[in-house]
Design a protein that fits this description.
With 396 residues, the chain is α/β, with parallel strands linked by helices. It has 15 helices and 14 strands. The strands form two sheets. The protein has a seven-stranded parallel beta sheet with strand order 3-2-1-4-5-6-7, with helices on both faces. The protein has a seven-stranded parallel beta sheet with strand order 10-11-9-8-12-13-14. α7 (136-143) links the parallel β4 and β5 (151-156).
Amino acid sequence: MGLNIKNLGRLAVGTAVRTVAKTASKWPHLEREYHIEERLLGPWPSDGPYLWLHGASLGECRMLQGLAVALKEDLPDCPKILITSQKVEVVSFLKDSCAGVAEVSIAPADILSALHSFVSSVQPIGLILAENELWPGYLSTVAKLSTRRNIALVSGRYRKSFPFVDFSGMGYACMQTAADLGRFTYASKGFVPCTMGGDWKLLNWARDGGLVCVPEKTTIDVVFLSFHQEEADAFISMAKDSVDKGESVVLMPRRLSELVYFRRRLYEAGLPVVDYPSVQSGMVSLVTRFGLSREILLKSKSAVVGGSFNRRLGIHDFWEPLQMGVATCVGPYAKGHDDVVTKLVAAHVVGQIHSPSDYLRRRHPSPDVVRTYLMCERMKVLNSYKLLLNFIKGIL
């Protein structure tokens, strides 16, 4: 029969997922939003072989985009690279920004038939997963393609995984914190070569020299980065305090689909609104498209990071404003990055707003303290990146 309990578990989950996905794909509005048929059948690039990089969110995939650039520069005879994401809106954004660096497509569903079609088309040499994307089918399918361990986890975060995950194909993992490292080492029974490598959202910054320069010509007093609809009450309260002081405020919603909601809430609160790139004192400027965070941070005195004012959300990328020298604050929650944020707050690298009523009393961290801390993070990232290069050379 040849089926053990782990295989039966994977088979049962895969069958259930496929049944649900096929049913959902028959509903036009679900198909338009989630591209279910494409996840099951493709099309995917057919001119492989490719080195496959996979992430979930925009932040993870932008990190992988930076990794793709680095690999193209540092790997002789670097193979073609494919980046996949679970999110349709992320794929759409990356297709433009990754032109000439990597191919981009929707990720295959984590079921046997979809993965078989994907592998047949893409011919992946190996798989590099971002943060915590430990999909059981991805791991088992790619592991069977080579006698060498051909899977890596980079910028890893680990709490738990499916009980039937097979780590035998993994040849390298670098984790963001010591706590992540300990949990992952225990879960994988020490089978996977593993190190602590920091957060690879800092990779390109680290390779470029790791400079932290405080923006000089600032026209934005505070930017609220990647705020979710669920955080609207907190945002409105803080924005009102800033506007009352005559400050210029910029809001970058997490999802563009929530723009209408935020605009309505601002009008209801009596707060004056303009659309970015217009920025005015005593007004809130709404950002209406993706990809402008760097441009905006170069003009900003301070940043408040979204995803941190609701305990159920995941915190947004707080490294981006930090590495650009912008005084950075987070809210009371840091789901997904609790260990790191706790250390950053304790080291006075990041300020913390415990409730919106504390907003005007928030700490603005010292640029010198931020620089010193980031230099240590830079060395972690660069050392772990060198180990990944050696891993990839070993599977080519």
